[in-house]
Amino acid sequence: MRELTYYVAVSLDGFIAGPEGQFDAFLLEGDHMAALTGRFADAIPTSFAQALGIAQERSTFDTVLMGWNTYAVGLPDMPSPYAHLRQVVFTRRDPDPVDGVDFTDADPVGVVRELKAQDGAGIWLCGGGALAASLASEIDRLVLKVNPVLFGDGIPVFGRGGYAPSAFTRTAATAFASGVTLLEYARS
Fold this sequence. Notes:
Layout: E1 4-11, E2 15-17, H1 31-39, H2 46-52, E3 61-67, H3 68-72, E4 86-90, E5 101-104, H4 108-117, E6 122-127, H5 129-134, E7 141-147, E8 155-156, E9 168-175, E10 181-187
Parallel strand pairs: 1-6, 1-7, 3-4, 3-6, 4-5
Antiparallel strand pairs: 2-8, 7-10, 9-10
């Protein structure tokens, strides 16, 4: 069965974006970048990976899930940010069709359960916090890129709650000289 991995950058105080949705304080340079782009190449926007000559083999992830606000970050320049992956965007809006992007207002839990039953590589939950909260019971792995910054307010890693308590076991912790720490957990 496929796994759902919530792979996301987070501040020390638990936010995936600031009060206005900004995430530019996250470190995009440093010794952590080579390790992350090597291991998680599938989680790099397609056009960036092509420009950097990074191969995306869909071996880690072949599907990406995101909420509308996460998807809209790249608009209008990048209407299909992860063209190398199956892209599912959860939204109540009725956007114009985009090749390679499946917009849906279906129940996220039901969609994830259907995806898990299919053959393929992993499923990546890209964001946002409210979607993560709604899918908390379905998340098999957490991979948190903890950045050495404080936002003070913003979008919490798991929205405003509303999910049942869950236990996870730490499977790895990698500290980089940049100050970023990669924390990995599996559902207990």
